[in-house]
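User: Sorry, what's this?
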Amino acid sequence: MKKLAVVLMGLSVLAAAPAAAATVVPAGNRNVEQPQVPGGSASRTKALKTSYDAKYRKVISLLRNDRALRQKIAAAARQFDIDPLHIAGAIVGEHTYNVDAYDRLQTYYVKAVSYLGSSFSFSYGGEDIAEFIERPQFAPCAGLPGSYAVWTCREEVWDSSFRGKTVDGKEFPNNRFSAVFFQPFYSGQTFGIGQLNPLTALQMSDIVSNVTGAPKLDYRDAQAVYGTIMDPDQTLPYVAATLRKAIDAYATIADFDISQNPGLTATLYNVGGPEARAYALKAENQRRMNEGLEPKLPEENYYGWLVNDRIADLKALF
């Protein structure tokens, strides 16, 4: 549980630390060539009988041709005080390397409504998530302030106490918390224009509610959670909140302002865990400083590299 204590300490620091000047990470890519794309993304793209370029052109076309969508993105960006390029970059990355975009925004609304009439729950092996988080291992999470801290804590407890282990006679998969409990149709499934997973939405629920006044999500109502992240009007604030959280984590923890680099925020949107990654970078730069070396700047992955490489296309949208 040592790792959990570090995570909880980090969350409290994020909540309490005042804003401070941070080193601005310049725009553009730190890597000259695109980092390698994971095999899973290549397999999905091949299975769809398409290509990354074709998927990129499709999502860019959706953004170019739908003025209402661009306005919704800009509105969500204003609510969370970020450049709309961050949201557009996350959307482009997701639909280029993960799933193909629908041709029309209306299709996302139709899909959102369809989930409201479905029958499913967040559960594993007959154990509902509401029952599962009552296990004593999750007790340290109960008193934490806000949905982000609570669900991040629960995710860490899953990793340390359940993932790949047998607990009380029950075997648990060696897989992510979100994949095991929050994707009842198939592992790795994400949803909507922002391709959010339900656990991320639950983490951001209080933040989004506080900023926008939207109702808070209830993990006991899986249909409503899915409907929210499929509905473009409701999901874009969750995308914006996730990006805002990553920007704040790097400024507060690692002393880097990544708000001018959409490729970096897209990278963190893709890989998740911005606090842990910010702490790792902070530790590495402390070591480098002790050795008399220059600090290392945050770097984009393959997904963020594309966003920075095509930034002119994104800027033309707004």
